[in-house]
Each structure stands twice: as C-alpha cells, then as structure tokens.
Amino acid sequence: xxxxxxxxxLASLIISAPACAPAGDEEPAGDEAAxxxxxPSAEAGIAEADAAFAAAWDAGDGAAMAALYxxxxxxxxxxxxxxxxxxxxxxxxxxxxxxxAGSQVALETIEVRSGDGVAIxxxxxxxxxxxxxxxxxxxYIVAWxxxxxxxxxxxxxxxxxxEQ
Length: 164
Known about the structure:
Helix content: 25-40%
Oligomer: single chain
Shape: globular
Radius of gyration: 17 Å
Number of strands: 6
Structural class: alpha+beta
CATH topology: Nuclear Transport Factor 2, Chain: A
Largest sheet: 6 strands, mixed
CATH architecture: Roll
Number of helices: 5
Strand order of the largest sheet: 2-1-6-5-4-3
Strand content: 35-45%
Number of domains: 1
Distance between the termini: 21 Å
Order of helices and strands: HHHHEEHEEEE
C-alpha cells in the first residue's frame, strides 16, 4: 500500500511537535523570549480561530475562512486533490459551503499539542443542514503555525465518519 507523502509529512510533524517544546526549566533567550511572552497559548488561539472558522462557514463566507490560513497553506480534502494557497482555499471552501447552503458547522477540539510556534490540533466536526437535520460528521487534524501575531491553519486534513 502506498502512503501519500502528505500523510507521512503530517505524521512526522505530529510525532515531532512535542519534541519542539523546550525542556521544563529551559528559558528561551533574547528576542525568542519576548516573542514567546507575546504569543497567546495555542489552545486559546486555536479556540478563537475555530470559532471564527465556524462563524465564517455559517455566514457562507469562504474569504473569511481562507483568511484564517497561512499564505502557503494546504487543505487535504477527502476524495480530492490537495488545495494549495489562500486563493485556491477560498474557492474550495466557498464551493463547499455553497453546496450545503444554509448549513452550520460545529467544531470540537479533542487535543492540542504545541511548541516553538507550531501546534497540532485533533478534533471532530458536525454539519447540520438548513432544516436542522444532521448532514455529516467526522474528524480532522490541523497543523497550525503562529504567524503575523496569530495562530493560522497551515495544513488541514479532514474526513467523514459516516459510511459512504
């Protein structure tokens, strides 16, 4: 069985993320210490970004969703090719939410691991249709980067937990 390179890269990032954190009593030096002091916790920043993502989905605003990603982000949707860069990500999400017009998404963070300006989030999602009926649910893993004063989605992979 061939394993896609993106899956291997993401798995490598997940495995190595805890090793990126400084050991318990080590203090970052100089400018690094100042940047770390200004950086909100990954959990808080990711919770804020997740709320903004869900609000943008609910509003049908693919541009606002794409603005939460890094410039060189990649979305890895199920059954499709990788979507690279903010402009392509905006088009992808806009088309996705338009196909589910009036739907709402709920995100739930299960775990966040972070260190050195990088974080990995594992979570679940559920989509409710405009009629209030359950449409789909699944899980996701996002690799986050702290850039430009905020936590941004950098690599985003998700899939459905429902039988096809």
